[in-house]
Protein 1
Amino acid sequence: MKSSYQSKIVSAQEAVRHIPNDSLVVVGHAAAVPQLCSQAIADNYRQYSNVRIYHMLCLGNAPYTAPEMRGHITHVTNFVGGNTRQAVAEGRAEFFPAFFYDVPRYFRNGLLPVDVAVIQVSEPNEEGYCSYGLSCDYTKPAAECAKLVIAEMNKQMPFVGGDNFIHVDKIDYVVEADYPLHEIPLPKIGEVERAIGSNVASLIPDGATLQLGIGAIPDAVLGFLGDKKDLGIHTEMFSDGVLQLVKSGVITNRSKQVHKGKLTATFLMGTKALYDFVDHNPDVDLAPVDWVNNPTTVMQLDHIISINSCIEVDLMGQVASETIGLTQFSGTGGQVDYVRGAAMAEHGVSIMAMPSTAKKGTASRIVSLLATGSAVTTSRCDVDYVVTEYGVAHLRGKSLRERAMALIAIAHPDFRPGLQEEFARRFPSA
Ligand code: COA
């Protein structure tokens, strides 16, 4: 098989020399970031002029966001992480708001015309197909639109099935690699997360299909689902938390209307245990984000339960999930894709689950007004359930007065008096 791409093998340094000036380069992300080429691009930054690099979730050291890249390389993204936040805040990198499911369309319709895709793939199978491994999401659509495809072929990238393959013939340059993938540690689950998990679990019936965000709250929810039956997974991403429920037979994916019997996601991120589990596993399907996250796909799943988190919710039910005031903290991601898909599904439910406070208990996340400059991620017409460690507030269909009452009831007790004063001002006759 190697003979079919032998002539395409180059070093990372050689591969990135083919990136032209004034171009848009789409780089794979999360656990599948092509580490050798990313570093080579940054090392060679002086050779570039006006190269824009789109990638989404940045694990690792985001080398091309360093201050000296200015004028040579600009990072553009619709999701900010810990290692790109500073660059965005200082105007050295650019953030654009977008629904995750919509990004591949930007590649195709010219809003983000892809010149070069720099991706990571598995070694090919007998027929010459490499798997995109842990990240199909926007990576496969970008490679299909790009004029030039540079692929790091990592021996350690799992071979994951679904609509998740590229043939070696479609790759222009192959960079051979053998390095461990980025892992994210298992989250720490405390008392608050456990209480939230228990409250969320009370909304999940047998036979439900789950979309889970990342972090301690989704994992805490999974910890309370041991007694449920025939749950399914259709989600932007999943992590190690689902493995136990698959092994114990709680997650069977039997009740799903789409991809019955399969764990469906658009990318995966977790520990080596997860990566080993998904490797050559016929029960795991990855597909591009414009299909997986598309609300018109999500709506086909009866009993889809979407579980996401947020920064603040105001008394009308407006949800700020990606900004802290004017600071862009993360991004819209797939939150609204699933909130809207769930709203259109038979028996679909969407849940915003968050601790009642932030900043070590000094700030309420349920607020009378969102912090100045906040972006509303999920609108008050889209919001459905809000859950904290103090309970469940069901907002859909409720009046502004009823919403405010329901939200105050699940705020931290220390902040309820202040919120009640605001309630009395807004609804004087109540
Ligand atoms: N005021 C001030 N600071 C706040 C705050 C508030 N209301 N709410 C949170 N923060 C701070 C926290 O204190 C914490 O700071 P620290 O890192 O210094 O401790 C930080 O913001 C992160 O908060 P936390 O609740 O720990 O974040 P998280 O890792 O659980 O992520 C979101 C929560 C909302 C940022 C994340 O879920 C997100 O980006 N959501 C939008 C996209 C999405 O939903 N994607 C999934 C779709 S499939």
Note: Residues 213, 215, 236, 308-312, 321-322, 324, 329-330, 333-335, 358-359, 363, 365 surround coenzyme A (CB under 6 Å).
Protein 2
Amino acid sequence: MGSDMKKDFLLVGNFKNNMVDAKQYQSNLGDMEQKMVILCPNFCQIESFESLRQKGIRLGAQDVSQFENGSHTGEISVDALTKNHIEFCIVGHSERRNDFAESDNLINQKLKLLQKTEIIPILCVGEGVSDSMPQIEWAKQTVFEQLSAELKNVDQAKLIVAYEPVWAIGTGKVADNQHISEICAYIKKTFDIKTILYGGSVNQDNLKEIYKIDFVDGVLVGKASLDAKNMVAMQQKICNEQFNIDN
Ligand code: PGA
């Protein structure tokens, strides 16, 4: 990509199981135009973040039920997301795969349900640490297996993939650019995916380098997204890169 080209870049915040003060968040965001920002609060807080839509921010959910409706205590259906005007939904986050034993089949069911609506799934894939093979090969094998199984009968053009190496999530160890670039390029070449995010310990210090990777169209940010000031700083870095301002 030539340095004079401006690339669209999504900034997605995943608040996970944390309560965030919506009023405080809004005031810390300031006046910046937030068209490329998606926030995923916990479901009970979605309503309190509604007013941020006025700034152009879009709202996403962190998960959805594989059941359409009915007697499934504790579940939140696609219908509930639609009625709350949710535009995006994270699916298959590694914390759900690990903590709730979510399988490829279950993730595939969720994707298919979401695709009956306008909600765009953000499918998270990524490898853990390998003891037996080079990490890059292990990463390719893992994402290939996940995506092959989970994208069956799913419209790949209407989906965002987030590549998140499990060892980089919440650890402060961001994957190096070569690794991110190779895996994101591999995913784009092997599957019909147009938009890929990188996730795993993204913050305002490493964002500039990640932005430069051709195959990356945005970032999925956990911990750093909890503070709106970090989001503002990250968006500022993206703007500076887009308009070639030194930072
Ligand atoms: P992190 O989380 O930014 O805290 O590493 C990323 C994620 O889990 O999506």
Note: The beta strands are 10-14, 37-40, 58-61, 88-91, 120-125, 160-163, 195-199, 218-221.
